[in-house]
Specification:
- This protein is mainly α.
- The protein has one domain.
- It is about 70% helix and about 5% strand.
- The protein is built from eleven helices and five strands; from the N terminus they run H-H-H-H-H-H-H-H-H-H-E-E-E-E-E-H.
- Strands 4-1-5 form a three-stranded mixed β-sheet.
- Helix 8 crosses helix 11.
């Protein structure tokens, strides 16, 4: 089966089934990662070399297993599709962001704060409606890149091994990639590897957002504002996404009790419930565009 058809099948499975409610492999991997960290980062004293070793122990064996399974005769293509399905988080993203927009439309700020708290690591208890909408819009743009587009990219590049390598690496970055006393040294490898794996996908996503939205504004925001953002990959994605939507994102936010002075991204009106919904539509339309390009490419090669 062609890579284009397998990609379409994986995306379709995610749309139909969503994430497994029980026994999700990434949940089991998270428990494994916690045990590995306890072994290599005792009392938060692990060095960079320990973090590199821990990353290899966590990621490489499972990536090799995915490689072997994808080579199996007759069923290898099913393994490929299932690997992409498990790595995608598109339907889950929509299920998490749309309730934020709905709560804002209902003027239920407490519910909106609670819902957006499931998506972001910043403190949400005291956010006003605009700040909640800003957090929700930022989340849908960035998570669309990490949980959807990058997974598709690495599947197209390297099949099941590629998407497994990416998803496990991205999970370790979410668990270990913090700049605090516990993970500053140990989590360095997980954060840098995730940055490398997301470098090309993030810029393709920024381009996708620009093409599907306010193109000139998106490109201008990408060029001028992305370098001001802390993350080398989230910067282009969120700056281009904010410009494509014609809204203003970024600005100060409180993380773990500390105020972070973040750059302002985008131009235009403040974020609101409509911005969240349009951000979600931007992700959906982007996936359809990618699938269309893949299928057309498959027809040309046939």
């Amino acid at each position: 089966m062609s890579i284009a058809l397998m990609t379409v099948a994986g995306v379709a499975l995610d749309a139909l089934l969503g994430e497994p409610r029980k026994h999700h492999p990434l949940v089991a991997f998270g428990r494994l990662a916690n045990r590995i960290e306890a072994r290599f980062n005792r009392a938060g004293r692990g060095w960079r070399s320990h973090g590199v070793t821990a990353w290899f122990v966590a990621v490489v064996p499972l990536t090799l297993l995915a490689t072997v399974l994808s080579w199996l005769p007759l069923v290898g293509w099913l393994v490929e599709i299932f690997a992409l399905y498990l790595a995608l988080g598109m339907r889950s993203l929509g299920e998490h962001v749309m309730p934020v927009a709905q709560a804002l439309r209902s003027d239920d700020l407490d519910a909106a704060r609670q819902r957006v708290g499931y998506l972001v690591s910043r403190q949400t208890e005291e956010l006003d409606a605009e700040a909640v909408a800003r957090a929700g819009t930022e989340s849908v743009l960035e998570n669309g890149s990490d949980a959807v587009f990058a997974a598709i990219f690495w599947f197209v590049v390297a099949g099941a091994p590629g998407v497994v390598l990416y998803r496990l690496s991205n999970t370790l970055d979410a668990m270990w990639g913090y700049r605090n006393e516990r993970f500053e040294r140990f989590g360095w490898a997980a954060a840098r590897i995730d940055d490398m794996l997301n470098y090309i996908p993030a810029r393709l996503v920024a381009l996708t957002y620009a093409v599907l939205g306010k193109t000139r504004l998106a490109v201008r925001c990408w060029r001028k504002q992305a370098p001001l953002w802390d993350s080398p990959n989230a910067g282009p994605v969120m700056a281009a996404g904010a410009g494509a939507l014609g809204v203003q994102l970024g600005g100060p936010a409180i993380y773990h009790g500390e105020l972070h002075e973040r750059a302002v991204l985008g131009e235009g009106a403040p974020a609101d419930a409509d911005a969240i919904e349009r951000g979600w539509q931007l992700v959906q339309h982007g996936v359809w565009l990618w699938l269309l390009v893949l299928c057309l490419g498959g027809l040309i090669d046939a």
